[in-house]
Amino acid sequence: MAQTWGGRFTGKTDPLMWQFNESLRYDRRLWRQDLTGSQAYACALEKKGILSATERQQIHDGLEQVRAEWANGTFAVKPADEDIHSANERRLSEIIGNGVAGKLHTGRSRNDQVATDMRLWLRDAGRDLIPLVRTFIQVTTERAASEIEHVMPGYTHLQRAQPIRWSHWLLQWAWTLKADLERLEQVIARCNRCPLGAGALAGNPFEVDREMLASMLHFDGVIENSLYATTDRDFVTEFMFWASNTLVHLSRWSEDLILYSTAEFGFVSMADAYSTGSSIMPQKKNADALELIRGKSGRLLGNLVGFMTTNKGLPSTYNKDLQEDKEPLFDSYDTVQAILQIATGVVSTLQIHPSKMRAALTTDLLATDLAEYLVRRGVPFRETHHVAGAAVKLAETRGISMADLSLADLQNLHSGFEADVMKVWDFEASVDRRNSTGGTSRHAVEGQIAALRAWLAKTERPQASS
User: Which ranges carry the Argininosuccinate lyase C-terminal domain (predicted)?
Assistant: First the structure.
């Protein structure tokens, strides 16, 4: 079969150039969308009288046969198949003859065709990620509910800061992924606009009904400018940003758990299913699943930056540089899809060690509580902060715990301390004083769990299928 673009060419293409230009090895992934878009376009051509009803049906049935071949793995790729569009068109011509198949591309360009395929693919593939994100959130939320009693150090600057509930730490990531899910839905909504019928760049000369095409393909509407329709790849960039940003979050989540699983912390142990060993040190149990999540997030950031760099200097409208959208997009999608499932597996099988968490709690974490004791007695916080700091220094100088300072020691620092100040040295009481919305008290954490459960129930939906 001659190339779809070959009419004005007489010289042969350099074989290396052919390999350089060919994209079927990766864009074959769009076969469903390409066939679906072509079937809809045939309907638009029939409406304008370019195809008869019989011809439109021949094209539809022929494309259904092509669909079956792709689905059952019998589609035979030929050496001249440059991309998914030319491969499908070539096979359609073999099935129904070129006389009818050759009419399908009337008024259509590969420019609006590939933009349509990409939007259809990403819309449906993005929807398939939604239940994966939801499952991570749900598993994390239910784990938080079942382990709410455990208290551990919270950290800033990787230094022990204040006591928090283990569940509070878990829920940080449930809320983070909830925001990621909402961003994903926004990306899908912006992606779901129809470029088909825009032609190569200037529009369709046969006045095909683009609104009908959008409706048939379940788009939310048409892209109103044909130049924009064929050149825009912001939806690709946005998805790759979403995937990168989500993996940045899961990379940070992984980093915490990697630290917490070390002997120095000992707060958690990874399940064997998500760990590996050492080839030389038999005692090692490495958190490789978490390290790979952390590592792969870097590759997705590279995909994003690379494609944005490709885009930044392109003139209007379609340029072959845009062929570089698919490989990083597909890689980013496959990676984030796998990682969401791995991360859910990790959090659902993790073993926690509450005694190690409790042992890591030291009374200097309650220095802020000591300052707040005086605040409740009317002393300005700026003054109480200095008093508490002096108490920390006194305990350090003596080599004792802050809880071992006597009432007299504290009263020497400030006359506002009374006998009940000794109740400050209670970790459970400390976390339960953080009782405002979003805090780490039992009541506040239960409120977070209830809110997440209500959101999950409200937004529950059947899984989309691409």
Answer: 365-432
> To the nearest 10°, the Cα dihedral for 379, 382, 387, 392?
140
Determine the average pLDDT of the residues in 353-361: 98
Could you give the 3-state DSSP secondary structure of residue 107?
A: coil
Q: Per the residue annotation, which of 52, 146, 278, 415 is the catalytic one? A: 278
Spatial separation of the C-alpha atoms in residues 378 and 12, rounded to whole Å: 89
Does the CA dihedral 153-156-157-160 come out positive or negative?
negative
Q: 462: which DSSP letter?
A: P
Residue type, 307: F
How far is Cα of residue 330 from the mean position of the Cα atoms in its chain? 13
Residue with tokens 């998914």: 84
Place of tokens 């978490």: 290
- Element holding 160 (H helix, E strand): strand 159-165
Cα Rg of the chain (Å, integer)? 30
Say whether 150 is catalytic: no
Q: What is the token pair recorded at 89? A: 């068109």
Report whether CATH 1.10.275.10 matches the domain 6-101: yes
pLDDT tens readout for residues 312-326: 999 999 999 999 999
Task: Confirm whether 105 is a catalytic residue.
Answer: no
Structurally, at CATH architecture level, domain 363-433 sits in: Orthogonal Bundle (1.10)
Is there a contact between 114 and 326 (Cβ–Cβ < 8 Å)? no
Is the peptide bond preceding residue 317 cis, with omega within 30 degrees of 0?
A: yes
Alpha carbon of residue 228 to chain centroid: 26
| Residue 61 region by backbone torsions, left for phi larger than 0, else alpha for psi between -120 and 50, else beta | alpha
**Residue 263 to residue 269: CA distance in whole angstroms:** 10
Residues 163-182 pLDDT 10s: 999 999 999 999 999 999 99
Q: Where in the chain is the domain with CATH 1.10.275.10?
A: 6-101
The single residue of 157, 279, 436, 465 carrying the catalytic annotation is 157
